[in-house]
């Protein structure tokens, strides 16, 4: 199977540089028409210019592809709606959304200003929600869509000094889970990508030899698979340095302890058994947890 996107229209946010630029170039090289969105701000969210987006558009056009530039901030829902309409007016549809826009405001939680916490959540989480909401009716109407969230190992597993970033990135996974369920009947597949890549956001954080292995291009294949018509749904792909993994949110079998007065003590004593991953499952929806709990309670009454 060849991964190609002829006839497809893609929107990539934060695509003026780094990983987003590589996403846009790769989609265009494989046949997609691409709306390149970038506010043109710094890594911390300061300033703004459409020039980075236009530079990527110029690259795509020079290679024979079709592309448009857009400088909307993903935090501005009206501007995001206009961005999506720009793609619709030009090409009549939107097939793919890659939510890649992001900023950093790193600091230990004890020293973090809550305005910085809120801004990072606004860009990563609300930005993704704005973009999904704007493309959703078009994808429903055409009975097809592919949405790629950009999560992070920080969201999945934590990282010192990134409480705001981690919270926003894991929240994107929660958004993915429900949108994938709601979009299934309309053939809208929603997935998440956790990249490890050397970009403006990682400068100074790793040795040069490691950064050389972590080229953004090495992450792009995972995005292409998640954006393609053959994509899975509700999958979290991790990618970096040409290595690919999958992350899962699982539920253990658990233990039924009932409602007795000493249940807190029993739970403390049997916590290792509760957390035992033998026989764990990947729930198809949040209802699985309740079904497991009620099922064990009913079984205990027999």
Describe this structure as you would to a colleague.
There is one protein chain. The protein has 302 residues and is an alpha/beta fold. The chain is built from eleven helices and eight strands. It has helices at 18-29, 51-62, 77-91, 114-142, 153-157, 163-183, 208-213, 220-227, 263-269, 271-274, 287-301; strands at residues 9-12, 33-37, 67-70, 96-99, 145-150, 188-196, 236-240, 243-247. It has an eight-stranded mixed β-sheet with strand order 3-2-1-4-5-6-7-8, sandwiched between helices. α3 (77-91) packs parallel to α4 (114-142). The termini are far apart. 40% of the residues are buried.
Low-confidence region ranges: none
User: Strand order, biggest sheet?
Assistant: 3-2-1-4-5-6-7-8
Radius of gyration: 21 Å
> Quick one: how many beta strands?
8
Structure classification? alpha/beta
Characterize the main sheet: 8 strands, mixed
**Straight-line distance between termini:** 52 Å
- Report the portion of residues in β strands: 5-15%
Order of helices and strands: EHEHEHEHEHHEHHEEHHH
Helical residue percent band:
40-55%
**Total helical segments:** 11
Mean residue pLDDT: 95
Tertiary shape: globular
